[in-house]
Amino acid sequence: MSSELKGPFNDLIFKKMREMGVQSLEEFARRTGISRGTLYYLVKGRQTATGTWVKPSVDTIIALAKVLDVPAHELLYRLDPDAPGSEVRTEKHVPILGYVGGGPSQMEAIEERTVPVRVKGNAAHLVAFKVRGNSMCAGRRPICDGDVVIVNTQDKGHPGAIVVARLENGEYVVKLVKNGMLVSTNLDANNGPPVIPADQVAEIVGRVVEVRSRLD
Fold first, then answer.
1. What are phi and psi for residue 152, nearest 5 degrees?
2. How far is it, in rounded angstroms, from Cα 94 to Cα 153?
3. What confidence tens digit (pLDDT) does each residue in 58-106 have?
4. Cα torsion angle, 55, 56, 61, 62, sign
5. Among 53, 73, 91, 144, whose CB has the most other CB atoms within 10 angstroms?
6. Cα–Cα distance, 150 to 204 (Å, whole number)
7. Which DSSP symbol is given to 57?
């Protein structure tokens, strides 16, 4: 789309158009019941001399929220980020980068996909991995085969934290940080080495901040 289109909802509108297989705003307007004039007004975007958005009507916000399947308050906060309640966490989609080994790393390709999370502000620091293996499937919060872990790449962890790490051989693993090493919590799983020395770790990708269990 043209860089001249500066509407505050454009990413949501264009994403919905792709999901629907719609190529034009005219077709999107026809299929959603939003008038073509209103839709063009929303996509082009209009701002006052002070830089605030010229706001659509409440009826338009409600109709758009239904079409896009997002909360109406999220659209309102895009119009006025300083409005009361704008600190509410909204749903963002975090990319799943691939598989991470709960035992040995699993490097096979994964289809491009995302996982929704509720965060305050930008979610660019979050990524996700799908777990293979059960060497972390024990302890207070087991991480088991098939689970998805959400990782904060701005937090490199601390002793006692669960992290995702890239090893010197290029593999990725999810492990517990302990005594300067990466260790497994489920020693009965026999999925690779129970302890990975620091000299085999090329990078700590980030700390695991949430586990989405396949059983949840």
1. -90, 110
2. 12
3. 888 898 988 888 888 778 777 776 666 555 556 778 888 888 885 544 5
4. positive
5. 144
6. 14
7. P
